[in-house]
Amino acid sequence: MLKDREAYWIGGIFAYSLKEFVEKVIYNDPATIVFWKDGTKTVVKASENDYYDEQTGFLMCLAKKVFGDDFRKIMNKYVWEDLDRRREERRIEECRTRAIEEIRKRFYG
User: Fold this and answer.
1) Is the pLDDT of residue 9 over 80?
2) 3-state secondary structure (DSSP) of residue 42
3) Torsion sign across C-alpha atoms 53, 73, 36, 62
4) Does this model's pTM top 0.90?
5) Cα separation of 37 and 108, whole Å?
6) Is 42 within 8 Å of 33 (Cβ atoms)?
7) N or C: which end of the chain has fewer CB within 10 A?
8) Contact (Cβ atoms closer than 8 angstroms) between residue 31 and residue 61
């Protein structure tokens, strides 16, 4: 008797293993290109302000393949807006810390 196997459906590709989705991956800083078994390809590029990382590039290609046209909308909602908010909070906290240190230096030497 055959065991039931877990199947995946990602971006229009059906497979029994995640390995069956990817044909080829090219890492060429700042771009990552994934060629899929269905004959399509996905390209992502790190921006000038980002550090290029192969793992992140591959995962972004996978997310882009899974979410299709909604990729940017989803990334904006769940990643980039939150990232911007956290960066701003960190910047404010760093400014507070520097201000407190300046006050301590002036008053306590």
Assistant:
1) no
2) strand
3) positive
4) no
5) 67
6) yes
7) N
8) no
Degrees to nearest 5, angle at CA 75 with 7 and 31 = 85
* Domains held by the chain: number: 1
Which positions ≥6 away from 52 have C-beta within 8 Å?
29, 30, 46
In a domain, 74, yes or no: yes
- The span from the CA of 14 to the CA of 18, in Å, is 9
- The first and second tokens of residue 84, run together, are 């911007």
Backbone angles phi, psi at 85, to 5 degrees: -65, -45
Task: Report yes or no on 78 lying in a domain.
Answer: yes
**pLDDT single digits (tens) 41-72:** 999 999 888 889 999 999 999 889 888 888 88
